[in-house]
Amino acid sequence: MILNCAYINRSCLALKNARITSNRHVWNESSPSKISNKKKKNEKTIRKITCDTVNISHQENSIIPNSVTSQSAVLKSLDMALSECRPYSVKTLSRGFTKSNTEKVKITSQKNKNSIDDSAKKQKSNDNLKVLKSGNGGKAKKEESVGLRLNEVNIQMLPKNIFQHLFGKGTYEKPSETQITMAQEELKKHNLLYAEKPTLDEVNFKLPSLKGGTVESHFHEIGEEQSRPYRILLNNLIKQLPEIPREWLYQPGWTKYSDGQSPQSIPFPDEDALVFDVEVCCSVGEMPTLATAASPNAWYAWISDSLIRGSTGTMGRQYLTKDLIPLESGHLQRGVGHGIAKPRVVVGHNVAFDRTRIKEQYWLESTGMRFVDTMSLHVCVSGITSFQRALLKSNKCKSEDMSSEEEEDWRNYSSLNSLSEVHKLYCGTTLDKTTRDVFVNGTLEDINKQFDTVMHYCAQDVHATHNVLKQLMPLFLSRFPHPVTLAGMLELSTAYLPVNSNWNRYLTDAEQTFQDFDSESRFLLARRADEACQLLHENQYREDLWMWDQDWSTQELKLKKKVVTRRKKQTDEKDGEATKVSNDKEMKVTKDGQEHQNIENESYSNEKEILDSSDESEESDVELLPAKMPHLPGYPAWYRKLCPRPSASDWMPGPQLISTSMQVTPKLLCHGWGFLVPYRNTVDSSDNSTSSQVPVKQLVERCPIIEGVNLTAGTNESELTLSNLHKTVEENISRRAYGKRRMPDTVPTWYKGNGVWCNVDLENCCWFLKLPHKNGSDHKVGNPLAKDFLNKFSENVLAGADAGAEKLLAIGRMLSYWRNNRERIEQQLVVWLDDRDLPRHLRSTDSDYGAIIPQVVVCGTLTRRAVEPTWMTASNTHKERIGSELRAMIQAPPGYSIVGADVDSQELWISSLIGDSYFARIHGATPFGWMTLSGRKADGTDMHSVTAKAVGISRDHAKVINYARIYGAGQQFAERLLKQFNPVMSDVDARSKASKMFALTKGRRKYRLRESYRAFLEDRLYTMTESLKLRSLHGVSLEEMFEHPQWVGGTESAMFNRLEEIANNPEPSTPFLGGRLSRALEPKVGSADQYLPTRVNWVVQSGAVDFLHLMLVSMRWLLDTRAKFCISFHDEVRYLVPEDQKYQAALALHVTNLLARAFCASILGLSDLPLSVAFFASVEVDTALRKEAHNDCTTPSNPHGLSKGYGIPPGESLDIYKALEKAGGSLKATNRRSKKRIMSRFTKRKHVIKEVLLDDLQLLTENQEVVRVLKGRGNNLHEVEGATGSRFLVSMPTKFRRTVWIKRGDFVSVEPIAEGNKVKAEIVQILTK
């Protein structure tokens, strides 16, 4: 039952079918702000009334009795009851009632109460009881129906218990009656308020307690808890560094340089905070060659064994952890059970590169080390757009549309991202980077020769990074004050991708499949080239529609003058044959390929005669050949380019060099770079020009356009465009700020095709039109067989001329992904783990296990999006693309699972939330917000369906354009997308549809007079034309006369008004965590508003980054230390968790989504959250990093799929109800395991003893020996005796202390300590019990 306007005192009416209750506060401008649901003791009892069925009208908010015994008494009683009613902002819907505008409720007397209660018990079991999917192990639980909570615009909100947990202690300003009315009327205009929609099943489980009471204080506290230790370390690190050492010791491993002390060898730097830099000799592989680090206490240098030896000792790209740099552990430390959890921080410029060379980062068990990137800090504080970066790189910073003063302004606040440029910006000095060439182009021998120079160069980079950190860190903390920002960035710096032996198999299979299809493609292309070459005979190419414009010229074979020997003359006379010797000095080969020889060979009438004379003829013919032979004389020029020369090492006859990237290939497949449109049947030869090359007759025959061909792009291209849309829009709007759009050539009205008019007339018989480029008419098509056009072929937008061409195009689609990404994939740095670094259950398996550390720049763009060239741009699996199963090759080792989720419509929800809070502080108050929260694709009420229907395009295309508009793209960009998706659409139609779409969504821009002008001019909204006339009439500028323009009349007008308000603020900041915009793009007083679209785009996308940081911090709070963050894609997050925690991790992701969205709503002043967005649609629990757990990832290189080809079963997709059932109803299980594992000393001892005493014994290495324990000599020290009788002290490893004890007479294996003086070795393993 829906109660629209009032709640009724429980003693007022006795209901048969339902009970009307209230559990919310009531707000009204004309009444007290708070009315209690409990009755006061002195409150008068309202007498009961008896009547039949009563109609309750929702529209009129009145109660009308159908028939009563005493009508006046009933009305009087109702008046008394309604006098205590107050407007109620949250409606209550009981599922036992029919959804209609008028519902019937029976009101009975007190005498019939008992009988009503009896009948109600029976009815309750059918109508008013529901099954709540609660946290009782997934079992159905029957409870008395609790009404669904609906807000003022019929959006279903959180259940009462979750609402009270998240928002019960907060203080919020409630929406006024005016705002509620305004929101309802706005929705009615678009027929949205009363649209029927199904209700969602409620969720009932206990949430973890919030820290601080409210969701806002909770995130502040957990963010502070996670970031504070590292922030303290960073503040200590920015102190003055010691002087750089003048001399460096040439010894492997770490060496410590302290003031006043001699250099000493150490296993690793015992520092909590370091500035770090690694150098790699590129000629020998990816492993580190040397490194330097510094702290306020000392300098440190690391030198690889390969530099000392002069060779790497590594076969191919098979890298092991022993080749890496230890930063937290000694040589004997294992990768499991290490217990290294102490917070440590490493700072570097592009520190992701340095992190991939650190040993401990490849362990399955995480440590407490985090990484801070000064390049990311620079991008946050002083980042620029991609187009500004291009200007800086090209040194073309003078623009026609900007004054030099404005241009210099942003240059003073930013720079390129290299260390030298960043150091120059913040410190004012330049760095000498010439020594870097030794590592890029030199060898290990070259580095050895310049050892002191390269060490000093590496140390200078560390010192420069430290100088930048001192300047940047205070700036960053002041501009990004919320602790969640730093905590989220620290968590992003720990990305980890596990792999196994299937990785090498994937590389082999993908490359072999690529080579097979590439060979077949080359063979088919070579055959088509041979067939086309035959058109040279009788000039047939002149009548071919595709090959007529190729270069058909041939080379001439010039022979020397033939000398007739005396022996030849005698032979000719004896045979009675006269031989005519030409007087010409040369013999030529004509263009048509037919040889004309002046020496007649009719004398060789049969094969026998030819063989008999072969010896003499060969000797004479060789003498006639020129000294330098031309390449394939007699063949056309375009064909010769496809054939290798005989001098090539891998020479094979025929057009072996042909590929799909060559210019002639599209012509061979009857597909080119444009269109020929004839306008006459014959060539106009009035100008006495040479004969035409255009085959007009054949062109006219082929010119008619075939009816009924669908040229509209399909889902594949729409998804591909959407995946890179945020980057494309950012590049487009940043470029628009600097230059005017070039006006295209005027297209004649008679042309209705899909070519790009370029006003090119060929021989007065036809027009040439360019093939349309996806980025607009200003761009040229480089290769018609490139990825974008291959998508057109796959969706039948374009087609080949015959079956052979279709097969070649199909092969081209298969090859495109691996050809474009092979180099990046094969160069991934994979480090394989030794058995000692693996859990015990993985050591006996046949597979190898390792990891890839993705080089993630945590803030790589102006919008603070993370950037990584391979994994963050990896596309989903496609059945036609070789190697596209890349993501699925990231596979969890046995005993682990990969758990993750895709944030549903992240940017749309953020944008709608901003608009709703600005418009009325009600979820779904704007049409855009309502469609985002409550719209359904099934009934066409979601925003993509509504836009598509109104404009007349497909939903897939509308979805891409909607996202582009939210990102800040304008109408011209929408026109271009429409043309890209539907090439046959004319410019006029594209402009019309784009204009209609923007009027429907964004609305029209209107101006309002400033207050000083309202006294004598009409106070209303003025259009652009009207405002320009008025300001011209009064002789003032537009800004002086009018306020900032507002968008009106569109479904998204409120949202864009708020976004522009934020963007035009003197200090724009994100709406959630309050992060500031880059200094280079902040609005300047009196300057042009050229960066407004960029700043609008920044608000939305940087808000999405805030949301990601909230999720990362929440997940780290909910999970224990065994869970590792894998990676975050555009709107996805993935975690590697132990098998026994996978369902708890899935539930934790659902809870994280709830908490993060509740925080965003609360920070914007909204005191509730819609149930539709509270939880993920599904959380993927899998053993591979595929996007969907049930996708088998079948590709040409993996034809059998993951299940049959790799033995990887499908994963699970869990919504909130399934996750609760699987996880046992709460997150308590995770917390208990975490506490027990961390706090139980006995459990730890059991595992350590089992590892030390019961592990499989390993053979001793060269430097290890077995010794006998004589006696204890102090804390964790023992005196031992070796095989030679020598006695010395050994130490107990840290992880064995207070856990394992040894006694006299025990035998142990030990390993020498390089820096040991008194203590000579460390115990490796205990050999006796």
From TrEMBL:
Region (Disordered): 104-143, 566-607
SUPFAM superfamilies associated with the record: DNA/RNA polymerases (SSF56672), Nucleic acid-binding proteins (SSF50249), Ribonuclease H-like (SSF53098)
PROSITE patterns: DNA_POLYMERASE_A, S1_IF1_TYPE
Gene3D superfamilies in alphabetical order: 3.30.420.390, 3.30.70.370, 5' to 3' exonuclease, C-terminal subdomain (1.10.150.20), Nucleic acid-binding proteins (2.40.50.140)
EC number(s) reported in the record: 2.7.7.7
One GO cellular component, as annotated: gamma DNA polymerase complex
Highest taxon in the source lineage: Eukaryota
UniProt xrefs under PANTHER family: DNA POLYMERASE SUBUNIT GAMMA-1
Name this polypeptide is given: DNA polymerase subunit gamma-1
